[in-house]
PilZ domain-containing protein (Desulfosarcina ovata subsp. ovata), 208 residues
Amino acid sequence: MHGSNWQAERKKILARLSIAIYKMSDQQLISLLHLFNDLDLADNNKRFDGSGLFTKDSDGNKNRQLLIAHFFLLINQLSEADLLKFMKSYEQKRFAMLREYPRINCNFTLDLATDDRAINCYARDISASGVYLETCEAFTIGQPVSLCFSLEESRLALKLKGRVVRMEHGGVGIKYESISSYQLEIMRDLINRLDDPDDSGEELAGGR
């Protein structure tokens, strides 16, 4: 790759990693660090065990920031070949994490909101990365939306941001824009329950 093209590509990669890493849980950061250390890099000195930076005291947040800063320092020093190798492993790991929560058929109501309207619709299938909704409302690809639903009437509503990525006659596919580790745990609980025949009689409530 030519020098100028590679510098532009490097900036894109680092910007993408920055957004993803700052949203990761502590455990996900440690997992990513292990992924980095397990790679057969050209410079084997670029190894760093940052798991000890996560402490339970009042400096925990500061230590987290130190880990992120040191991690980016290491990545910035990687050669083109090593950075591309790391990104390939990162994408495979990210895909595997999403596949841990497969798409499950479902049938429950939820509230969807856009800038100009609020819609109550049915979810037909759901995964940790998105949901397919049954609706005759008009949308556009890339349109931002907000979703709100709860597992039970007694539980707090789960609120997610997303974007329209697929449109069909009578339905629309939504991909979550971002999802926290807490929301992912709730989503995993939902998917596990939907996939469990013993819980099939338990209805889910739309957010209000």
